[in-house]
Amino acid sequence: MGLSRWKAGLFILVILIVGIVGGFAYHLLSPVTTTTSTQSPITSHTTTQSQTATHTTTSTTTSPPATTSTQPPVTSHPTTHTTSTTTQKPDTQPPTITLFKEFEEDGRLHMVFKIDDESGVSKAYALVKYPSGKTYNESLSKVYNYYPLVFNLSDEGKYLVEVFAKDSKGNLGSFNKSYSFFDKPQIELVAYDVNPPTTSFNISVKDTSGISKVLVEAFGKDYLASPVNVDSKGNGLYNAKVHLPDLAEKVDYKVLVYDLYNNSASENGSFSLTEYQQYLTWAINQGYNLCLAEPFYKYQLIQNMFSTRDLDHLKHILDFAQHNGTVPPRNLAYLIVDQVVKDRRVSDKVQLIDKVLSNLDELKIYGLKRLDSVWLVNNATQHGFRSLEGLGKALYFSDSTNISLSYSNPLCYSALADIGYYYPQIFKYPYETKFLALQVGDVVYFYKIDQIKGKDYVWNGLIVPYASWRFNKLESGEFKPLGYKLTKGELKKLASWADPIVVQAAARSLYPLDELMDHDLLGYDSHRFFHDRQFNLALERGVKNMKYNQTLGASPFGYIYNLMMKDIQEKDQSEERSPLTGWTRYEEALFSWTDIPGNVWTNTYVVWKQVAQEYLNKSPELILVKGYPIALGLVDPPVNPHFYISGQGCPYYSKIIGAMLNRPTLVLEAPYPQAYGVHDEPFVVSDDGKLVGFWYSKEAFLQDYEGKPYKPYIGVYLVSDLKWKKFGKEELDKVLNNP
User: Mean pLDDT lowest for which of 83-97, 233-247, 539-553?
Assistant: First the structure.
């Protein structure tokens, strides 16, 4: 009895242990609730992404249904021993296979089976047939009372899972189940790069079965992406180029990815285009060369034209640039825009550029070789010109010469254009042309004299008659042209030491339009109309001085010139003599070097006396330039026995005499050393580049101011006495000789 009770207790203890272990295993392998998560790939912008998977399962088994109990039944034992004979039937029942649980995790399918058999399971294994046709074989091991199976879901489609179990008697049970697995593609990355006129999309995608196609929807069109770096299934990087339409400010796009089973995933996004990107897109779509159009955008003017959609004017610029074909900065349209933008004097820059291009279009000029020519067409268009034909001739001249045509006064460019209309013959002599335009711009146009009776009147009445007179002298060889004087002659020597303003004043004097309007050449009226800013009267005087007079047999200008040439030729043989001295006009003119305030500038007078005697011997015409206006009043011309020019006017009249002799002449001003007031003196440029006049020596000039109340300076007149530059004591070596 004692032994039987001990055995019974031991049996119960075993039952309890088995129950505890079984409960623990059941808890461990209990069904797990799976969740579906949605995750968006990281992109450089806001996106939305949807992705789901579809699974379908079917199963069959050849074994009886598994019992619901997780523990084997307990068999009771009698407490008394009896002897009996039992006949057992052969075990022909195969193991029972039941699917306890299945779930997906990390791209794998987890299946848990329960296999029961009274005689015990000796072996279990599984065969998995993939949608692709490959087979996976795995032996199943028991974990507590369960047999787990895990395999990769590497294919999309229908999987066939077969599980086999054999008991200790050799009976074989089987279980089969189909499992359908389909996932949607994953969009891992969407990046874009704007390169007008397209946007390049780089899209990284993957899918279990493989990628069928990748699309980008934008602006109502579908763009098929091309593989860039993909594996055998098509997973990897794709690229699509989306064409940007004109004036698009924003790109709204949708990326669509399809796998081999036509499952899809999508991602939406948007981004804005910069003004610069919009401009380049528009320009290229319009057919403009990017290398030509892009450089223009650096100008705020062009940016404003595009942002305000002033596209007609903008297209005019780019059309012209395209016609020219040269890459900026040498492109003519680019140069025109550049110079107009930099010119602060221009208020409506867009209109000016458009007018300039229209003028060139009409002239069929799409290329200019020199920046000077760009200045010419820009400024002439801005300030007006007489004839488009004349502008064209002036542009041809400008592009054909190599001298600088830079003017500080933009009206000189209008004058240059008008030379092309009124007197293009002078283009034969570039420097003559340059200084004629300078004088017309600074004298006639600056003071609006051309607006009094129109350009035709002043050009045909004053400018052309004088220019043609000088041109004929050049053509005959009687005069050496300004080009020679400035590059080889006396003006080049002058430029070696004097200020450029001094050289310019000397060169200007050979076109003395201001003095021709200031003086009555016949000496009837001493009023200086140009000096007094009576420009209406000055215009009439200038025209009268150059107009043929039947009584004189020449114009007043021609009459004085002929008279002087006669006096030079006859010298001391002329019958026309001073009633006081008995000298001829020529002799009076040469002696006039003494007509200076020697008692004021005493040191200067000593030097000048020596210099005057020297030049009387070697170049008397230099002294004649100063003295002839004075001599005209001492020995009156036959036409006017009462010839008179004021003392203040004589130095400026000398500029006309200098022009008649082709001797550059300028007027200098200096203050009186001891008293308030100024004095003017004419200076003639000698062949050796010296300024021959009263204040010949800087050293002597400065000595005359020592201990005096007024400081020394020299003023240089450019246009009559209305425009001038002042040189102080420290700058006198740039305007006075320093032997």
Answer: 83-97
CA 123 – CA 146 distance, rounded (Å): 13
β pairing state of 53-61 and 96-105: unpaired
Scanning the structure block, which residue is given the tokens 């004979």?
85
d(CA 89, CA 80): 26
CA distance 715 to 725: 6
- Pair 661, 627: CB distance under 8 Å: no
Domain over 96-181 is classified CATH 3.20.20.70: no
Q: What pLDDT does residue 87 have? A: 59
Residues 6+ apart with CB under 8 A from 422: 386, 390, 455, 459, 460, 463, 464
The answer to whether 698 and 732 are in contact (CB under 8 A) is: yes
Per the rule left: phi > 0, alpha: psi between -120 and 50, beta: everything else, 364 is: left
CATH fold for domain 186-275: Immunoglobulin-like (2.60.40)
d(CA 115, CA 117): 7
SS3 91: coil
pTM of the model: 0.78
Residue 658, token pair as written in the block? 């200098």
Domain ranges, ordered by start, for the chain: 96-181, 186-275, 284-494, 535-734
In this chain, the answer to whether the domains covering 96-181 and 186-275 adopt an identical fold is yes
Which residues partner with 254 through β-bridges?
A: 217, 268
Q: What is the pLDDT of residues 363-387, one digit of tens each?
A: 999 999 999 999 999 999 999 999 9
Q: Report the pLDDT value the prediction gives residue 88, as an integer from 0 to 100.
A: 66
Which DSSP symbol is given to 715?
E
With a pLDDT cut of 90, the percent of the chain lying above it is 80
Indicate the Cα dihedral angle 73, 79, 84, 86, nearest 10°: 10
What value does the mean pLDDT take over residues 184-189? 96
